[in-house]
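ok so heres the complex, two chains, lmk if somethin looks off
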Amino acid sequence: MSSDRQDKDFCLAELARTSGEWLRGDGPESDIVISSRVRLARNVAGFPFITRAAADVRFQIVQQVQAALKSEILGRPVHHVNVETLTSLDSQLLMERQLISRELARGDGPRAVAISEGERHSVMINEEDHLRIQVLHSGFALDDCWQECDALDNQIEATVPFAFHPQLGYLTACPTNVGTGIRVSVMVHLPALRVTREIQKVHQAAQKINLAVRGLYGEGSQAMGDFYQISNQMTLGKSETDLIAEVQEVVSHIIGWERKVRDLLLRDNKSQLHDQVARAFGTLTSARSISSEETMLLLSSLRMGIRLGLVSNLDVAAVNELFIHTQPAHLQKLHGAELETADRNVARANFLRKRLGSSSLG
Amino acid sequence: MSSDRQDKDFCLAELARTSGEWLRGDGPESDIVISSRVRLARNVAGFPFITRAAADVRFQIVQQVQAALKSEILGRPVHHVNVETLTSLDSQLLMERQLISRELARGDGPRAVAISEGERHSVMINEEDHLRIQVLHSGFALDDCWQECDALDNQIEATVPFAFHPQLGYLTACPTNVGTGIRVSVMVHLPALRVTREIQKVHQAAQKINLAVRGLYGEGSQAMGDFYQISNQMTLGKSETDLIAEVQEVVSHIIGWERKVRDLLLRDNKSQLHDQVARAFGTLTSARSISSEETMLLLSSLRMGIRLGLVSNLDVAAVNELFIHTQPAHLQKLHGAELETADRNVARANFLRKRLGSSSLG
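and the predicted structre for the whole thing:
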């Protein structure tokens, strides 16, 4: 990728001060669902899979895909980021933002990501597959995600031929993605199910029907702050809409379950719940040093507290944003320099006190 | 004791709203020393010790001692409280106030306490001995305590003959008090020595020279919130002033030690210390339910924070008062009714939020 391809106007430091549309905390069921995502795995016909592609081949792939997205993504302005030349801090920033995967961040050779304004769409180039096409929405909105992802897939396919087999469907580097190449995932906030330990049953139920339950940052990541990603694992033998319907059904069930347990807690343990939310608020607005893990847990309580009407002058969008803006790379970009863990913990605490300063307990 | 002896004007409910002079947080070394106390054990000549005294004898003892203190204690107005007829809540209140011992509260038969205005002096009647004469000062002021205790002892002895043996000295129910009958104790606040685990060495050093290290509420009580009572155990073979000098020397050493460790912590762990104080403040001003133990620990951090200049609009006297006013009986008297543990925890949290509402972190 030539350096003039890099979008000069897209300043990564700006990202640390703004937030993606998917964090707005609106959309259906947003008391429990943070965001919905549909991702398609695609490969360009006529090129070997990434593991067998030399640097020059990978470079051609980047060029071909970027050309297809050069002027816009579904009518929105597009930013092209050359991931190969990013500092590790910048690629971590994009990861925290859910715009690129750990695999793309830590990979090597020519690779890139195209991001639409508002961060709803992103296309990773030369991740595990040549293309990973992603659409991210706030709230429980898988149908919208799918429609846009399908349209974006068509936009690219208009100029880039995809590897497709009449029987198998779309061909992918890993056999688990063959067929539709689709991964559907929903990020849910389940504090009540965690506190009552029913979250174990969610894991078991999901496993039984081949859904994965993971943490905020995908494969291998621990669930932090009561956030869980629920996604399909099968991609073959069913249509995209059937796979989406399956995830929708399970997630709807989990939403109802979490809501019921919240109501029960509110009925039987209101003062305890109020105490938990109040203490979380007290610590977040007082601490002089705080880890990322503790922040996530306390923000989780605060987010539930807002939904239960226990906190004033604070909306869910602000808390969603804090989850992302208190991540290590975001803090360091805001600060304008790399920070050791201890200094990050101090910077995080300062940031939280400033942001939450005008809020109060209801 | 006839009911007309009971001081009609001394309302115990009032006690829950006020505080004793010894909580003012002033006096020498008051960054570390809460209060100093001298207590003398005395028995009235011609009467058997308490364990062998029938109710009518005990009644006579109460009458004789109250007569000696009828109008004043060292020139101050005096309040006579009939402990025999107190509710358990009221005797707990006096215990929390350090005005009577657990033994007097839980004893049986005629027994009383005489308290001077300001709570600096108190004379328990029919505790383990016929009289326990106590003087309590704010800060490190054992000499003042001793002088007043000696004067009060003389005031009573002017009309009440004490059991005294030319070789043994003052006779007491328990042989460990024979001789001077003196118990000298200093309540110290040692958060830095606790956090660095050097408090173990304080225990060992004190034991070696026969000093006891106990919690806030005397014998058998756990140290809570980093408060320790250091007192002599021997009363025989040395003069009162020698015994006091011994305790003074050891406590002076401990004060210097605590201060040094605080300075070191402030030099090497300032941000950690600041964080601890800030979190304590955050929890105390936010929680909706809080136990007595947690309150003591957090107030301990806050008290140190004030001394280190990390908290504004709050003085040590207010924190000292909170230690006492958040105790169970005080809370219940303020509330005007008995409360179960869970309700007490809610009442305690409400009380703390109200009291600390106008303070802020520096």
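quick notes: The two ends of chain A are 53 Å apart (CA to CA). thats all i got rn
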